[in-house]
Design brief:
The structure holds two protein chains of two kinds.
Chain A (H helix, E strand, L loop, with lengths): L1 E4 H15 L3 E5 L15 H5 L4 E3 L4 H13 L3 E5 L3 H4 L3 H8 L2 H4 L9 E5 L15 H5 L5 E3 L4 H13 L4 E5 L7 E4 L12 E4 L4 E5 L3 H16 L3 E5 L2 E3 L3 H11 L2 E4 L8 H12 L9 E3 L10 H7 L3 H11 L4
Parallel strand pairs in A: 2-3, 2-4, 4-5, 5-7, 6-7, 10-11, 10-13, 13-14
Antiparallel strand pairs in A: 1-8, 6-12, 9-11
Helix pairs in contact in A: 1-8, 3-5, 9-13, 10-11
Chain B lengths: L4 E4 L9 E7 L6 E2 L4 E6 L4 E5 L4 E4 L8 E3 L3 E6 L6 H9 L28 H10 L17 H4 L34 E5 L2 H13 L5 E9 L1 H17 L6 H15 L5 E3 L3 E5 L4 E3 L1 E3 L2 E3 L2 E2 L7 H16 L13 E5 L18 E15 L2 E15 L5 H16 L7
Parallel strand pairs in B: 13-17, 17-18
Antiparallel strand pairs in B: 1-8, 2-4, 2-7, 3-6, 4-5, 6-8, 9-12, 10-19, 11-12, 13-16, 14-15, 18-19
Helix pairs in contact in B: 6-7, 6-8
Classes of the chains: A alpha/beta, B alpha+beta.
Chain lengths: 327, 415
C-alpha cells in the first residue's frame, strides 16, 4: 500500500472517479490553474482540461447553484469550497435546492452532487474562519455528511460520495491535508454511514470524527499510560447517516462514553450521539455520557486562548476519568 | 423566622467514613429536643447515638434502618414547630457537607428525601444486580453521591446459583450475625459485612495483604486413625475396593469439623462474607509444573470409601491434565498435604476467596507422655492458615480443636 498525504488521497479519488465517469467534473475557486488553494486538484487541469476542471469567480452561491443545475441535467459535479466558512454563503443552494429537489420532484430528479472543502479551525484564522459546520449540515434531511479522519478514509469516502445519487457533504480539514497514511490503491470505497474502530478498547468509548480522531487516539494513549485504562476510539466517519449500530455496540462493550467534536456544544453532533446512546444503550451505561467540544465562544485569535478553546487530549482524559469514576 | 436544621450523618469516630442506621428512636413528626438521641448508628467501631442539634420536629427521615450512609449526608431535618418543611426538603440536597477523602460530592445512598429506599445506581449496575439477584440496598456505591456502579457489583453471583431463599437474608440483619447451617436448602447464605468487619477487612488487608493470614498449629495423635485405616483397608481389600489414605481421612474429618464450625467454611467477597452450607474441599495436588486443587464436593456427606475413590481419580486426572474447570473450582476450604515429602510442618497459602486451608505434615513416631508413661506414638502436625477478615483467632482455634478431636477419635465422625 502506498503512503499518501490526505490531500493526495483526495486527489487520487478525484482523478480515478473522473477517469471512470466522464460526467464527473470539479468546480470552484482556484481549482484549475492554481491547482487548488490546498493543492487537492494538483495536475487535474492538465489531465482533464478546462471543461471538467472549472475555475469560478468568488461567488459561492452562484457556482453552488450552477452545480445543482448541472446535477439536475444529469452530470455529477464536485463543488470545492475554499473553506466551509465561505460556503455559508451557498447554504441556500445546498439546503433549499440540493437537499430538497429529489423530494419536491416526487423522486424524479436526483441530485448527485458533492460539496467539499476544509471545515473547522486551522491555526489563528480567528472567529469568522474557524468554524465547524458539522451539525449545521448534518441537521438537514436530504443531505449526507461525511468527515474522514485519515487519508484512506478520505479517498474511500470521496469516491463513494461522487458515486452516490444524493448530495453529499465532504468535510475535510486544513490541518489534515498534510496527514500521511497508507491508502489502498485503485477501487477503494468506504461505505457512507459506517463508523470505524480506530483503536479497540474495553473501558470507555471515545466517539469522534475528523480532526478529533487524532485527539481521541492521543487521549487513549495517555489514559492507558496514566491510568491503565483502555479506551476504544470509534471514528464516526459519517455524520449523516450515523452508524447507530456501531455506537451502541461499542458502548454496550465498554459501558461508558465520551463524545468528542470540533464544533460547539449546543445542538452539536455529539448531542445526537448521546441521544442514541441514552435511548438504545440505557441499560448498558455505567456512567453519564460526557462530551468534549470547542468552548462555547467564537474562536479566539490569541494562540493560547485558541488552544484552550479546542478539544484537547487532556480534556478527553479528564472526561474519561470522570466516567471511569477515577476522580 | 424559624429555620429548619439538617441532621447529618456525623463522624462518631475518628476513622468513620460511613455509618449504618441501626434504629431510629424518633419518627417523622416526633418532637425532639437538643441532645436527645435521634438514632443509633453503627460506626466502624461501635454503635453510637446520633443526637439532635436543635429543638423542633423531626421531618424528612431519609435513611432507613439498616441503611449505610456516608458521613456528611443529610439523614433528616429538624423543623421548627409549625414550620412547613417544603423548603427544608429542598435544602437537604444542597445542604450536604463535604465528606472526607477524595469524593467530589459528599453524599450517601440515603439523601433523596422523598423516598428513603431509593438507591442511586447506574443503569448498568441495576441490570447487573437484577441478573445476579443482588439487592442494591446492600451494596455500597463507590460512584459520585454513592451511586452504585459496575465495579461495585463485579463478582456478584449469577442468578442461576442463587435460589430464591438468598434474598431473604437481605432485610434487617443484626449487627453481628453468626452463621449457622440453615436447613433452607440454599447452598449458601450471604451475610453483609458489618461496619466492624469492614474495618477489620480494610485494616488487616493493608497490614499483610492482600489476604491477612494468620496461622494455627496443633499436633495430632494419629494412633487411632492409623488403626482405623488399617482395619478399613483390610475390609475394603476383602471387598476388592481401593484403599483409604490418611489424606482421605483428613479430608473427611475436615469436612465434618467444618459442618460444626460454619464460620470457617466461607468466602470473603469484599463487601460480604458468604457462609457456605455445603462443604466442598479443595485438595492440593502437585502436578508437573505447578499445583491444582480439584474439589471433593459435599465431602461432609460422603463416605470415606467414596472420598478415597474420588480423590484418587481426581488426582490422577489432575496429573494427566484432564480436569474440567468445574472440577477444580468452587471449593469452600482446602487441604494441602506434604506429609509424603517428610515435611514436619508448614504453612499453606489460602486459596481465595476461601477463608482457610489446612497444611498437613508427615506422620512420625515420637516419644510422648501418655497417662504419665513415656511411649512412642504416631503424631502429625497440622497448621491452619486463616483469613483474618473472616476468621478470628478463637474461631479458628475452636475449629482446629474439633478437627484434632475427630482425627484422634475417628469414631466421633460417626456421631
Amino acid at each position: 500500500m502506498a503512503t499518501l498525504t490526505y490531500r493526495d488521497a483526495l486527489n487520487q479519488a478525484l482523478r480515478e472517479e473522473m477517469q471512470r465517469d466522464p460526467d464527473v467534473f470539479l468546480m470552484g475557486e482556484e481549482v484549475g490553474v492554481y491547482q487548488g488553494a490546498y493543492k487537492v486538484s494538483r495536475g487535474l487541469l492538465e489531465e482533464f482540461g478546462p471543461k471538467r476542471i472549472v475555475d469560478t469567480p468568488i461567488a459561492e452561491l452562484g457556482f453552488a447553484g450552477i452545480g445543482v443545475g448541472a446535477a439536475m441535467a444529469g452530470l455529477r459535479p464536485v463543488i470545492e469550497f475554499m473553506t466551509w466558512n465561505f460556503a455559508v454563503l451557498a447554504l441556500d443552494q445546498i439546503v433549499n435546492s440540493a437537499a430538497k429537489i429529489l423530494y419536491e420532484s416526487g423522486g424524479q430528479i436526483p441530485i448527485p452532487i458533492v460539496f467539499r472543502g476544509p471545515n473547522g479551525a486551522a491555526l489563528q484564522l480567528a472567529a469568522q474562519h474557524s468554524q465547524a459546520w458539522d451539525s449545521w449540515l448534518a441537521h438537514i434531511p436530504g443531505l449526507k455528511v461525511v468527515a474522514p479522519a485519515t487519508p484512506a478514509d478520505a479517498k474511500g469516502l470521496l469516491k463513494s460520495a461522487i458515486r452516490d445519487n444524493n448530495p453529499v457533504i465532504v468535510l475535510e480539514g486544513e490541518m489534515l491535508y498534510n496527514l500521511k497514511g497508507e491508502v489502498p490503491e485503485g477501487e477503494h470505497l468506504v461505505p457512507i454511514g459506517r463508523a470505524d474502530v480506530k483503536r479497540p478498547g474495553r473501558d470507555v468509548t471515545f466517539i469522534c470524527h475528523s480532526k478529533t480522531v487524532a485527539v481521541a487516539l492521543k487521549a487513549a494513549e495517555q489514559l492507558a499510560e496514566r491510568e491503565g485504562a483502555s479506551a476504544e476510539v470509534l471514528d464516526l466517519r459519517s455524520l449523516r447517516p450515523l452508524d447507530e449500530e456501531a455506537i451502541v455496540g461499542s458502548v454496550a462493550h465498554t459501558n461508558r462514553a465520551v463524545v468528542i467534536e470540533e464544533g460547539w456544544p449546543h445542538a452539536g453532533v455529539g448531542a445526537q450521539v448521546v441521544d442514541i446512546i441514552q435511548r438504545e444503550a440505557f441499560d448498558q451505561l455505567d456512567a453519564p455520557v460526557l462530551r468534549v467540544t470547542q468552548a462555547d465562544v467564537p474562536m479566539p485569535y490569541n494562540k493560547q486562548l485558541e488552544r484552550l478553546a479546542k478539544p484537547s487530549a487532556d480534556r478527553v482524559v479528564a472526561a474519561a476519568r470522570r466516567v471511569l469514576y477515577l476522580d | 423566622m424559624p429555620v429548619a436544621t439538617n441532621v447529618y450523618m456525623e463522624a462518631l469516630s475518628p476513622t468513620m467514613e460511613e455509618g449504618r442506621v441501626v434504629k431510629w428512636h424518633k419518627r417523622d413528626g416526633d418532637p425532639v429536643k437538643t441532645g436527645e438521641t435521634l438514632a443509633e448508628v453503627e460506626t466502624d467501631k461501635a454503635v453510637m447515638d446520633l443526637v439532635a442539634r436543635a429543638d423542633g420536629v423531626l421531618r424528612q427521615v431519609a435513611a432507613a434502618e439498616g441503611q449505610t450512609v456516608a458521613v456528611g449526608s443529610v439523614v433528616a431535618v429538624i423543623a421548627a414547630p409549625g414550620e412547613t418543611v417544603g423548603a427544608a426538603a429542598a435544602a437537604s440536597g444542597g445542604g450536604m457537607r463535604e465528606a472526607g477523602g477524595g469524593r467530589r460530592e459528599a453524599a450517601g445512598v440515603a439523601v433523596a428525601p422523598a423516598d428513603a429506599t431509593r438507591v442511586k445506581a447506574s443503569p448498568l449496575a441495576k441490570r447487573m444486580a437484577r441478573e445476579a439477584g443482588v439487592d442494591l440496598q446492600l451494596v455500597t456505591g463507590s460512584g459520585p453521591g454513592g451511586r452504585v456502579v459496575k465495579r461495585d457489583l463485579e463478582g456478584a453471583a449469577p442468578r442461576a446459583s442463587v435460589p430464591a431463599a438468598a434474598p431473604a437474608v437481605v432485610e434487617s440483619h443484626p449487627a453481628s450475625r453468626i452463621p449457622h447451617p440453615a436447613p433452607s436448602g440454599a447452598p449458601y447464605e450471604d451475610v453483609p459485612l458489618t461496619q466492624i468487619r469492614k474495618t477489620i477487612a480494610k485494616r488487616l488487608a493493608a497490614s499483610l495483604g492482600p489476604i491477612p493470614h494468620f496461622f494455627l498449629t496443633t499436633e495430632v495423635d494419629m494412633e487411632r486413625a492409623s488403626e482405623a485405616r488399617e482395619a478399613l483397608n483390610k475390609q475394603l481389600g476383602d471387598q476388592g475396593g481401593g484403599k483409604v489414605s490418611f489424606n482421605d481421612i483428613i479430608i473427611k474429618a475436615t469436612a465434618h469439623a467444618l459442618t460444626k464450625h460454619p464460620a470457617c467454611n466461607a468466602w470473603f467477597q469484599e463487601d460480604h462474607i458468604r457462609y457456605w452450607h455445603e462443604v466442598h474441599i479443595g485438595m492440593a495436588v502437585a502436578v508437573e509444573d505447578g499445583l491444582i486443587t480439584p474439589v471433593i464436593r459435599n465431602a461432609e456427606s460422603k463416605s470415606l470409601a467414596d472420598i478415597g475413590r474420588e480423590a484418587k481419580e481426581l488426582a490422577e486426572r489432575a496429573r494427566s491434565r484432564r480436569l474440567q474447570p468445574s472440577e477444580y473450582t468452587g471449593s469452600t476450604f482446602s487441604v494441602s498435604n506434604l506429609g509424603m515429602f517428610d515435611i514436619d510442618q508448614f504453612t499453606a497459602v489460602i486459596n481465595p476467596p476461601e477463608a482457610g486451608i489446612i497444611a498437613v505434615g508427615s506422620i512420625v513416631q515420637k516419644p510422648v507422655v501418655v497417662d504419665g508413661q513415656l511411649t512412642a506414638r504416631r503424631r502429625m502436625r497440622i497448621t491452619m492458615s486463616c483469613d483474618h477478615r473472616v476468621i478470628d483467632g478463637a474461631t479458628g482455634a475452636a475449629f482446629l480443636k474439633t478437627l484434632k478431636q475427630m482425627l484422634e477419635n475417628p469414631l466421633a465422625m460417626l456421631l
